Amino acid sequence: MAISSAASRTTALLIVVVGVTALIGSAANGHSETAWKKLDLKNQGLSVLMPGNPKSKEIHNKSFIGDIVTHEYYLDDGRDSYSVEYTDIPGFAVAFSGSDTIYKHAKGALLKTTLSKSVSFTDITLSGVHGKRLVYDTPSKPGHPEMQGEARFFLSGDRLYVADAVVEMDRGKERMMRFFSSLVIEK
C-alpha cells in the first residue's frame, strides 16, 4: 500500500510539474501560439501575415490636391500592433514631388502620430519595388516594457504602401520579422 501511495504522489507531482511548465511556457510564448493569418488584398497588390484577424478602416484626408483616401488594416493585441495600409496618390502629385518627398511626408506623419523618434531611415527594395525602412523608438505605456517600431514605405506607381509594426523591444523582434518577411507587394 505504501508503494502505490508513493507512486500516486509521484505521479500527481509529475502531472502538476508538467502542467505548470506548460502553463508558464504558453504564457511566455503567447504570441507563438496565435494563428498567423494571411491578409490577401490581391486587387490592391498586397498581402501579409498577421497574428489574428485585422480590423479595417478608411481614412479621408482633405488636401490641396483633393480628397486622399487611405485604406488601413490593423491589429493591436494589447502588447504589439501591426498595420498595413495603401493610399492612392494623384499621379500629378507623385510626378511633381517625387518619391523621396512622399516618403519624407509619410515618415513625418507616422512619427508625429505615434509621438516617436526616428532611429534610422534607409533604402530598401521588395520584389523590385524601391522603398524606405524606418526604425523608430516609441514611448511605452506606464508599467509596460520598452517598445520599438518599424515601418516600411513603398511607392508603386501612384500607390503608397505602408507596413508598420510596434513590438516589445526585448521580445518582439521575431514576430516583427515574421510580419515583414511575409509582406508581398506586386509591382
What attributes does this structure have?
43% strand; alpha+beta; seven-stranded antiparallel β-sheet; 2 domains; Protein Transport Mog1p, Chain A; 187 residues; three-stranded antiparallel β-sheet; disordered N terminus; 3 helices
Question: What does the model show?
Answer:
This protein starts with a helix and ends with a strand. Strand 4 (66-76) and strand 5 form a beta hairpin. The chain contains 3 helices and 10 strands, in the order αβββββαββββαβ. 32% of the residues lie in helices and 43% in strands. It has 187 residues and is an alpha+beta fold. The protein folds into 2 domains: 1-30; 35-185, Protein Transport Mog1p, Chain A (3-Layer(aba) Sandwich). The chain has a 7-stranded antiparallel sheet with strand order 3-4-5-9-8-7-6, with helices on both faces. The relative contact order is 0.14. It is globular.
Q: Please, how many domains?
A: 2
Known CATH architecture of the largest domain: 3-Layer(aba) Sandwich
Annotated CATH homologous superfamily of the largest domain = Mog1/PsbP, alpha/beta/alpha sandwich
Mean pLDDT: 83
Provide the β-strand percentage band: 35-45%
Number of helical stretches of at least 4 residues: 3
Structural class: alpha+beta
Summarize the biggest pleated sheet: 7 strands, antiparallel
Query: Reading side by side through the largest sheet, how are the strands ordered?
Result: 3-4-5-9-8-7-6
Task: Supply Rg.
Answer: 22 Å
Which regions contain 5 or more consecutive residues with pLDDT less than 50? 3-32
CATH class of the largest domain: Alpha Beta
**Helicity range:** 25-40%
The CATH topology of the largest domain comes to Protein Transport Mog1p, Chain A
Task: Count all strands and give the number.
Answer: 10
Helix and strand pattern: HEEEEEHEEEEHE
Shape: globular
- Measured distance between first and last alpha carbons: 75 Å
